[in-house]
Amino acid sequence: METPTSLISLNFQKKKVAIWNPSTREFKILPPSSVQRPTYPGLTCKHVFFDCGAFEFDFKTDDYKFIRFVTLCYVDSECGIESPEVSQVELYSLKCDSWKEIPSPNYSPLDYCLSNNCLDGICYWIIATGNSPYEKVMILSFDMANEKFSVSPILEFVGFFSKTNINVLVFNGSVGVLVYPVEGIDKSFDLWVMNGEEWTKQFSIESIPGVVDPLGFWKNNELFLLNTNYEVVLFDPSTQELKVLGINSYLDHHREYVSLFFYVESLVSISGIQEHKDHIIRQLVGDASKNLNRNIDQVDTKYDDG
User: Fold this and answer.
1) Domains identified in the chain, total number
2) What region holds the F-box associated beta-propeller type domain (predicted)?
């Protein structure tokens, strides 16, 4: 079972970030970053993109932290020709309520949305090395306590990245990767787990029809998936059954922004404000909730720019 967190971070159209406590319905929009953008003679910064966020608790300092990768796009001020992109990394501290810049690694993560990619204060992403179509896959990690990046060895069993999707996740208290083909809607999945410096294959799931993306594991190796109708479904490998949970993503044709989070209830205060009741949409799952031993709530919270 994944290590849960009591708070969740939200990314608003990659412009604003908020921390949310689902238990108390309190949320806090984080202050704008104070990190300085580099300047270059004759170049203008045209776009700033924020991606690959991760939110985790730092046990060493008793602090919640949010890390995100920043991509800066520059153009020549006279002829408008684009220059190579520049990368930065920013880290937010809830205790200090401020951002700071972290030395950027030589790699950019390939995971664009938040997911269950953190364990014991360390966050993990997939990176690729080499040139297309022969990229190889590695794991980039960031230690929230030491605020340092590191890279794990290449995963030789994955094969070429151009033909394979790889999702990094936490499985039964260990870091794992879920490997599945890029093409087709009948997906097969292989789960590999890191044991020390070695990777061990846990199990394989044969062809599951009508699904596009995995979201994460539940009890007894059950796997949450997103189907072709953008609904959340649950696959039971012991019975080979696919259960429709009645949860629609409400994100028409934007499945890359659907993530699954496990959290524990907490009264941790984030010095924010309460959600307005009119902005909360709660959907109770029907019979499928009994299989999860709890009700699953779907919350669609809308905020303005204020």
Assistant:
1) 1
2) 14-270
